[in-house]
Amino acid sequence: MSNDKRPIVALVTDAIYPYFRGGKEVRYQEIAQRLAQRADVYVFTMKWWDGPWTRHDGLVNFRAISRLRPMYSGERRSYREACFFALYCFRLFRFHFDAIEADQFPTFHIFTLRLVTWLKRQPLTVTWHEVWDRAYWNEYLGWAGNVAYLIQWLAMRVPDHLIAASAETADRLREILG
After folding, report:
1. Which of 2, 9, 20, 66 is 20 to 30 A from 43 in CA distance terms?
2. Within a domain: 63
3. 173: buried, middle or exposed (CB in 10 Å: 19+, 13-18, 0-12)?
4. Residue 132 domain flag
5. Is 22 within a domain?
């Protein structure tokens, strides 16, 4: 990358503000707007909006990589949405970027993005918002919580860089990762 060329950063998250309102969505909105002052920012997400599959909000570019799918099944995150979003993340092979920063949720996409970034020889950074222990996973999912805990444990080891969204999350990551 030459000095006169702005870096291209891909932010990958299944939910974006203002269509879905939560702490991580507001955080990504702020990060995208601020980062766009220094880099070309593309947010890859589901198609939350009407119209074309690409749209612009100021200096931030949004690209839908999949149609909108329900993120929840009842009160729990949807496995189906997580799996579909992970598969659609393979579409990032078609785009040039200098780095990917991804949201921890819905987790399965982290493995897809690792493959994409590995083959493209680009770094993968993941922002971790919450760390659940095995007991919490089991409370949330029953026996399947053991599998979910293992997936979380593996996913923490995949990125080149982890960003903890809070001091508590950083402490829990250090505890698990050593």
Report:
1. 2
2. yes
3. middle
4. yes
5. yes
